[in-house]
């Protein structure tokens, strides 16, 4: 592995992000419409909270983060259990690292860069839904190592997405995977 280069996510990265995201998370996870939507949700005050990691010309990781006020708090979120006002919480939508590049700190570096940007956008904390069925529960372990605290577990979090075309790599189109709603406080 050569030196990893990090930069703000841009539309030039979309094609490789879609390919990596669908390979890691399952077909139908990303397409042109939702990556553009997710990218725009990461922009606030001329600050971009999304980041990518490259090894040469190859995209090896990406972090999608929605800025404060640019995401909807839905039935899968528990703002009454957060210790900060919901209007000061960003959303860590997706962190994806190529399987051949895991264990080298790329995911943590992408998260650190997103947190720095989110603070500049006005965030005091960030919430995410972590995939508990990731191999060895690695998603929850990684987020915990980065300071994340469990808020609540949500069974069947991605079932509706699966019924609408998302092909979960474990469950197919009848996903019953569980999400761990977790929060990181920035101060």
From TrEMBL:
Keywords assigned by UniProt, alphabetized: Transferase
Single GO term (MF): acyltransferase activity, transferring groups other than amino-acyl groups
Domain N-acetyltransferase span(s) in chain numbering: 4-169
SUPFAM superfamilies xref list: Acyl-CoA N-acyltransferases (Nat) (SSF55729)
Domain of life: Bacteria
Pfam families: Acetyltransf_1
Record's keyword annotation contains Translocase: no
Record's protein name: GNAT family N-acetyltransferase
């Amino acid at each position: 592995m050569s030196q990893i280069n990090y930069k703000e996510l841009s539309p030039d990265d979309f094609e490789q992000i879609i390919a990596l995201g669908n390979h890691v998370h399952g077909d139908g996870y990303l397409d042109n419409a939702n990556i553009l939507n997710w990218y725009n949700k990461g922009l606030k005050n001329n600050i971009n909270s999304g980041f990518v990691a490259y090894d040469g010309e190859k995209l090896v990781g990406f972090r999608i983060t929605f800025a404060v006020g640019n995401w909807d708090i839905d039935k899968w979120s528990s703002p009454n259990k957060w210790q900060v006002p919901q209007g000061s919480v960003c959303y860590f939508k997706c962190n994806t690292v190529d399987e051949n590049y895991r264990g080298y700190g790329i995911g943590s570096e992408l998260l650190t860069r997103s947190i720095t940007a989110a603070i500049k956008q006005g965030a005091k904390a960030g919430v995410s839904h972590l995939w508990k069925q990731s191999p060895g529960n690695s998603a929850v372990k990684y987020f915990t190592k980065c300071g994340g605290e469990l808020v609540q577990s949500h069974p069947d979090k991605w079932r509706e997405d699966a019924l609408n075309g998302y092909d979960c790599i474990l469950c197919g189109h009848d996903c019953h995977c569980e999400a761990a709603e977790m929060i990181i406080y920035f101060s």
